Amino acid sequence: MLQVVCAIIQFNNKILIAQRSARMSQPLCWEFPGGKAKEGESRRDALVREIWEELEMDILPQQALSTVTHHYHNISIALHPFICTTANGIFVRKEHAQVLWADLAELNDYNFAPADQPIVKELIELWS
């Protein structure tokens, strides 16, 4: 089981979401940015590293949400989401097709990757 972390980054009452590129698995689906944890790396450290690598953004992980286990056709993942804050909303898009700030009420309007869909549901329940 692949251990993956993702960030629900909050800034000015918005949440950062990213659209996977056409060449990634789950092409053009939306997700909360993150990536794979390295062996021996804490989930929080992995998340801070991944967000810096993907977006050149400093974040502070605050609260862990429910882990999502998802079985894609060729891989199984345990996705560990964290609610995070950032000092400013500045990012550099490097890997994704699009990255944007969305309102909580808009999240259901985006086609999220299957593993991220339970996180959207949990966020809406938590913050509504």
Number of separate helices = 2
* Tally of structural domains: 1
CATH class category: Alpha Beta
**CATH homologous group name:** Nucleoside Triphosphate Pyrophosphohydrolase
The N- to C-terminal Cα distance equals 32 Å
User: At CATH's second level, what is the architecture?
Assistant: Alpha-Beta Complex
What is the overall shape?
Answer: globular
Strand segment count: 8
Low-confidence stretches: none
Describe the largest sheet: 8 strands, mixed
CATH domain fold name: Nucleoside Triphosphate Pyrophosphohydrolase
How much of the sequence is in beta strands? 35-45%
Supply Rg: 13 Å
The succession of helices and strands, N to C, reads: EEEEHEEEEH
SS-based structural class? alpha+beta
Percentage of residues in helical conformation: 10-25%
SSE inventory with pairings:
Layout: E1 2-11, E2 14-19, E3 30-31, E4 34-36, H1 43-55, E5 60-64, E6 68-71, E7 76-85, E8 98-102, H2 117-127
Parallel strand pairs: 1-7
Antiparallel strand pairs: 1-2, 1-4, 2-3, 2-8, 5-7, 6-7
Care to describe what's here?
- The chain is 19% helix and 35% strand.
- Strands 1, 2, 3, 4, 5, 6, 7 and 8 form an eight-stranded mixed beta sheet that branches.
- The protein is built from two helices and eight strands.
- Strand 6 and strand 7 form a beta hairpin.
- By secondary structure, the chain is of the alpha+beta class.
- The chain has a single domain, classed as Nucleoside Triphosphate Pyrophosphohydrolase (Alpha-Beta Complex).
- The protein is globular and about 35 Å long.
